[in-house]
Amino acid sequence: MATVNSSYLGRLAQNREAPERMQAFVARHGPPLALLAALLAQLLLLSFQITRNHNVRLIKLWTGVVFRPFQHSLHTTVAGTSRAWTRLHGLWGTESENQQLHVQIVTARAQIQQLSQQAAEAGRLRGLLDFKTQLPFPSVAAEVIASSPGENSNTIFIDKGSKANLTPDLGVITPEGIVGKIIAVFPSTSQVLLISDQASGAGCILQNSRVQGVLKGDGRNLCHLQYIVNEEPVSPGDEVVTSGLDQIYPKGLPVGRVARVNKGSVYNNITVRPAAALDRLETVLVCLKPAPLKQQAARLPPR
Q1: What is the DSSP string of 179-209?
Q2: 260 falls within a domain
Q3: 105 phi and psi, to 5 degrees?
Q4: 3-class DSSP assignment, residue 146
Q5: According to the model, what pLDDT value does residue 296 have?
Q6: What is each CA distance from 130 to 90, 124, 242, 299, in whole angstroms?
Q7: Rounded CA gap, 291 and 36, in Å?
């Protein structure tokens, strides 16, 4: 108990000594402290009164000196952020321009492709028209609008029919070669059996030897020239033309070229590759039959 009281009294004594020490320090150093306070007060008053650099008060200069590092750092940060934002905005603008340019390029390519297709179509039509004017018989131009379903399609449909004076058994040709014959006629369309069909037939002649035969289809875009005896000279590459004896195709039209020749028991087995691209037909000509002599005579003007 005595120990507790003594410690408590010691702390109490120390607490009392602290103010006394402070008072002693102030009493001992009072004049210098008063002089320092007076100098600081005078300095502040002078800073408010004295002007520098075009009437700028000294306090402002000191304030600028003190806060200039912070201001410089803040300015640098703001400037860097502004530049970063400008670059980011520029990147966004560049990306938008790239997207617009990509759309323009795609559109230009589509237009170029469309113009190329139109130019190719115009070229085909011009070639067909030139070929039509050179033919010694009348003809009607038609477009292929459909083909029969199946992997090896052997019939097509054209956009001309009875309204254009078309009838069955009219020959269908292209500038490259014969295509087939009309087997069904409707008011505005017609069905054409291709020469590659097994049910087709065309009278033909070997251009070099002038030997006649009959062309039959094999159902796979190729044909066979039949009834050419083994003794007749036939070689791959020989040209085959129409004979005109079938009364469907006019004489002398290109049919194709001999692809293979094999000897048979009596007749040659001759494979012919058609001259016309039967799997890529777009425009064709239908060969019209000349009017009978009586009709031609009736159309002549009276003398």
Answers
A1: EEEEEEE-SS-EEEEETTSTT--EEEEETTT
A2: yes
A3: -65, -45
A4: strand
A5: 42
A6: 58, 10, 21, 27
A7: 136
Decide if 265 is inside a domain. yes
Domain containing 215 equals: 140-288
- Calpha distance 296→108 (Å, rounded): 55
DSSP-assigned beta bridge partners for residue 191:
157, 184
Q: Enumerate the H helices of the chain as residue ranges.
A: 2-49, 58-134, 293-299
pTM, to two decimals? 0.59
> Does any domain span residue 243?
yes
CATH of the domain at 193: 2.40.10.340
Distance CA 53, CA 8 (A): 64
Q: Of 181, 185, 176, which is closest to residue 193 (Cα–Cα)?
A: 181
Chain centroid, CA 144 distance in Å: 26
Residue with tokens 């009348």: 138
Count: domains in the chain:
1
When pLDDT is cut at 50, 70 and 90, the band that residue 220 belongs to is confident
Are 164 and 173 spatial neighbours (Cβ–Cβ below 8 Å)? no
Q: How many CB atoms within 10 Å of residue 240? A: 26
Alpha-carbon distance values, 62 to 32, 44, 48, 96, 117 (Å): 26, 11, 11, 50, 81
Query: Among 91-100, 196-205, 209-218, 279-288, which is the least confidently predicted range?
Result: 91-100
Task: Count other C-beta atoms under 10 Å from residue 111's C-beta.
Answer: 10
Residues in the chain: 303
Q: Is residue 9 part of a domain?
A: no
